[in-house]
Structure formats: structure tokens, C-alpha cells
Design brief:
Elements (H helix, E strand, L loop, with lengths): L10 H4 L7 H9 L4 E6 L5 E6 L5 H14 L5 H7 L6 E3 L2 H8 L3 E5 L7 E5 L28 H11 L5 E8 L5 E8 L5 H12 L9 H7 L12 E3 L2 H10 L2 E5 L5 E4 L17 H30 L7 H11 L6 H21 L2 H21 L5 H14 L5 H39 L1 E2 L2 E2 L41 H5 L7
Antiparallel strand pairs: 1-2, 2-4, 3-5, 4-5, 6-7, 7-9, 8-10, 9-10, 11-12
Length: 500
């Protein structure tokens, strides 16, 4: 299952032993301007308390005040039977009352000293409309993306997988935020060890606030020091439903429009879900093109620096003259020239990402043209390296998963430094270091570079390339699914016309 150092829970040690009483809790809540508490009823007097910013105001007048006004009640038990709402509970647990009150429940209690009260769910759900994906946009295929409401996200997945075996386990994470985290998987397909690993790691998270799914992936990763993402985050419900059917596990975080899926492998980061909407020839070509683009993006500038610094004998004679002409008058060595251009590209990327969309696009296009032209004319860099760096930056954008794209941008700099110190040998050493790191890396305890290592030939049919759907009759053995058969291969390959 890989190396996993379990975090020791600090709940009891950090827990405040002097929990407030019910009356102290109400006094503390009344300090907030949005807390409402008023008396209601004649024959049986009781108090209604809630945070008006957390509850649905229509529910209070329609489903709470209207019934109890028409039918006077004598006890909280009668109230529970009268209100047309599920999950109404009666309790005297102050801790539970506090948690529910701050989650959007209405508190109905007899007086301000007795802790026995009824908790009525009336949560106000504020959410934006479902829109098209932004980071995983596709020309063909569904145009839905997740939103910040966890219940809406689960609904979009359940529409695509209407199965009773699709389980959803909810865990509250975060000492202060109490964020809802839902682990979803298909029972009977997902491996039990993978399910247990995910549930245990989420339960062991000790952190005060969980704002986004990126917090979860950082806190439960196998190797926290690795620059490579070990879980895929997606904003597409169709992709989530697809990987669930393969035997993977999805992690939903309330307030996040991204869903984490795992265990994952390195080739999956270069597979766009749009590949399944085209023929297998085109999908395979684009997957191989992305892998080549990544290698070019990482190695092109370091090889340029290494060749011009140590191995200029490798340059063909026909190419030597243009290189000499382009570098004549350049005051900087190749390494400084490359670092300046790489940092300029990163500055343009960051500026374009942080500015509004229209302004960011203008900055990226105009800034790149103006700065590149001015740098060449001023003699600060050669036009050959400018072309190489521009192509490398363009190649890095072909990565479908944004987190892996960021990793590729970062690891170019160690390769550049290795090329400056040791030439091609340094590039090879750096490549070997990252390769050994990837071979040791795991995702939820499963090998990260599978199915290449350990080699699983049957899983290669949907990793580096994609074969026709009729050939994908088995789920990836990398996941060790409980049910490895997806469909009957014989019947899928047997195609008969109606007259046969």
C-alpha cells in the first residue's frame, strides 16, 4: 500500500474540556447580529432560534410558523410530528446543538435554560448555475461542469450512474470549517483496500480549515515533497462517472468545483476525456503528441544550453552558421539567455492568469510579441533560442490537467542548471533522478507509472494510446478491481447485420 505515515488525531488533546452550557451557547450566539431568537405560542410557549443568514426564510414562514399557528402544540414531540420535514431530531446534546445550529438548522426549545430542543433542517443553499468547463473544455461531448454545491455535484454523477451500489460516505473535516467531504465509489467494483485507504486518510486529517479540494490532495498524498500531483482533480461529471465505473474513488469537497479521483497513474495526466469522443486512431495520435510535447517542453532549452556550452561539435555545419550569426553580439552566456527568456515567459503567464480574461489575453499576446522583438533587436537574446523557448511554452499547454502543466513548468529549471554544470551528462543525470523518483512514487499506495512499471501489457491499451472500445473489455488491473470484467468481449466483437 506504499508508505503512509498516519497522522495522530489530536481531537481529544485539542478539545476544549470546558464546553459551554446551553444558556451560555445562546448568549454567545446572540452576540452576532444575524442570530434571531423569539418567543412563539400561547398554550405551550417555546422559543425559535436560528441564524438568518444560514436558513431559508421561506421555510420558516411556510413550513414552520404556519403549521404551529393553525395547530397549537403541547410538546416538542408533537412539533416533530407536525412539521412536514424529515430529519427533525430532539436532543439535549449541547455540542450537537451547536454544530447543527451553525449548519443551518432551526432550534426550537422550551426555555433558555433547558437544553432539550428540536432541531429542524432549513439550510439555505446558495449556488451558481451549472456552466461549461473552463480548464477541461472540449469541442464535442457534454458541456456540464461541477459547481461549489456538493449535493449538486453528487446529483450530476448519480444521473450518469443510477446504481444502488454507488455509495457515498460523508466525513466532516476541519477543526474550524467542519467541511463536508464525500467519498464516492461503486461497491463491488472498487477495491476494498483502496476504499479503506481513502477513508482512513481523510479521517486522519488534522487541520483547522478545508476550503478546497486542493487542501485534501495535499494533506493525503503519499509523498508531500513530490512536485507531481498524485490525484487527478476534474471539473467534469462525465469524467468522474467514467473513472468510477473503472473502479476508482472520487472525493467531493463542499465548496469546491473540483472533484479528486484516484488512484491515478502518470499517463492519465496526458489523456483528455475528449479522446473518448473521437475515433481511436485520432485519440492515440493526440496522446502520443502530448507525450512528445512534454518531452520537448522539458528538454529543448536544456539541450540548447548543453550543446552550445560543451558540445558544439554536435552541431551540423549547415546549422552552425545561423547559430553563430544569431549569437553574435549577445553579451550573456547561453544559460543566462535561457533563464531570462524562461522567466519572461513565466511572468507573462502569471500576469495573464491573474488579470481579467480580456486584459490577460491582451497582455499575453502583445507582451510576448513586444518583449520578444525588443529583446532580439537589443541584442539581449538570440532569435533561435527565442523560437525554442516559445515552442517549449506552447508545448506545455497541451497537457490536459492543469496541475501537471504547472509541474512541467517548474521542472525545466533543474534541467537547465544541470545542463550548465555538466552538459548532456547533466541532463541525463537529472532525467535519471526524476525517473527514479517517479518509479518510487505511489498514488494511494498504487504504482504511479503503471502500467509501464510494473509492466501490464493489457492495461497499455488505454494509457499511452487507446484501442477501439471493443478491446476495452477489462478494467485496469492497476486498480485491482473486485470485478475486472466491464462487458462481454465476444458479444461486443460479434457484429451481425439484420439479414444475418
Amino acid at each position: 500500500m506504499g508508505k503512509w505515515f498516519r497522522r495522530q488525531k489530536g481531537g481529544q488533546s485539542n478539545k476544549d474540556k470546558n464546553e459551554p452550557t446551553f444558556s451560555e451557547l445562546l448568549e454567545k450566539c446572540k452576540e452576532s447580529k444575524d442570530f434571531i431568537s423569539f418567543r412563539q405560542g400561547k398554550s405551550f410557549s417555546f422559543y425559535i432560534s436560528y441564524y438568518k443568514t444560514l436558513v431559508n426564510p421561506d421555510f420558516i414562514h411556510r413550513d414552520l410558523l404556519s403549521p404551529i399557528t393553525k395547530h397549537p402544540i403541547q410538546s416538542l414531540d408533537e412539533l416533530k410530528n407536525l412539521i412536514p420535514v424529515e430529519n427533525v431530531t430532539i436532543t439535549d446534546d449541547v455540542k450537537d446543538i451547536q454544530d447543527k445550529l451553525l449548519s443551518g438548522f432551526i432550534l426550537v426549545h422550551e426555555n433558555e435554560t433547558s437544553a432539550r430542543c428540536a432541531l429542524i433542517p432549513a439550510i439555505a443553499v446558495e449556488k451558481r448555475q451549472v456552466t461549461i468547463p473552463e480548464t477541461e473544455f472540449s469541442v464535442v461531448g457534454p458541456k456540464e461542469s461541477f459547481v461549489e454545491a456538493i449535493d449538486v455535484n453528487i446529483n450530476m454523477v448519480r444521473k450518469r450512474l443510477p446504481l444502488p451500489e454507488l455509495y457515498a460516505k460523508e466525513i466532516l473535516v476541519g477543526k474550524l470549517s467542519k467541511t463536508r467531504v464525500v467519498v464516492m465509489y461503486i461497491q463491488g467494483i472498487a477495491n476494498e483496500d483502496n476504499i479503506s485507504t481513502v477513508l482512513q486518510r481523510i479521517k486522519d486529517i488534522e487541520f483547522d480549515q478545508i476550503i478546497d479540494s486542493s487542501f485534501i490532495t495535499q494533506l493525503m498524498s503519499d509523498n508531500h515533497n513530490s512536485p507531481f500531483p498524485q490525484l487527478i482533480d476534474t471539473e467534469r461529471p462525465d469524467r468522474t462517472a467514467s473513472v468510477l465505473s473503472e473502479g476508482k474513488i472520487a472525493i467531493f469537497v463542499d465548496g469546491s468545483p473540483q472533484v479528486l479521483t484516484g488512484p491515478t497513474t502518470l499517463p492519465e495526466f496526458f489523456s483528455a476525456f475528449e479522446d473518448y469522443f473521437t475515433t481511436w486512431h485520432i485519440a492515440s495520435f493526440f496522446r502520443l503528441l502530448r507525450l512528445f510535447s512534454v518531452m520537448f517542453s522539458v528538454l529543448s532549452s536544456p539541450i540548447y544550453v548543453a550543446v552550445l556550452t560543451y558540445h558544439y561539435q554536435m552541431i551540423p555545419k549547415d546549422l552552425l552558421s545561423p547559430l553563430i550569426a544569431s549569437r553574435s553580439g549577445i553579451p550573456f552566456p547561453p544559460i543566462m539567455e535561457a533563464i531570462i527568456l524562461e522567466l519572461t515567459i513565466e511572468l507573462l503567464r502569471e500576469a495573464g492568469a491573474r488579470l481579467p480574461t480580456k486584459v490577460g489575453q491582451t497582455i499575453g499576446i502583445v507582451g510576448g510579441i513586444v518583449i520578444g522583438t525588443a529583446a532580439v533587436e537589443a541584442g539581449l537574446t538570440s532569435n533561435v533560442l527565442l523560437i525554442i523557448v516559445a515552442l517549449a511554452a506552447l508545448a506545455s499547454f497541451t497537457t490536459p490537467v492543469y496541475q501537471m502543466s504547472n509541474t512541467i513548468r517548474i521542472i525545466r529549471f533543474p534541467f537547465l542548471l544541470a545542463a550548465q554544470f555538466w552538459g548532456i551528462v547533466g541532463v541525463s543525470m537529472c532525467f535519471g533522478f526524476f525517473l527514479s523518483h517517479l518509479l518510487k512514487l505511489t498514488s494511494l499506495g498504487r504504482p504511479y507509472v503503471g502500467p509501464v512499471y510494473p509492466l501490464r501489457l493489457k492495461d497499455l491499451k488505454d494509457s499511452l494510446y487507446r484501442l477501439p472500445f471493443e478491446k476495452l473489455s477489462r478494467r485496469p488491473m492497476q486498480l485491482l478491481p473486485e470485478d475486472p470484467i466491464r462487458f462481454n468481449k465476444t458479444r461486443a466483437e460479434k457484429k451481425q447485420d439484420i439479414d444475418e
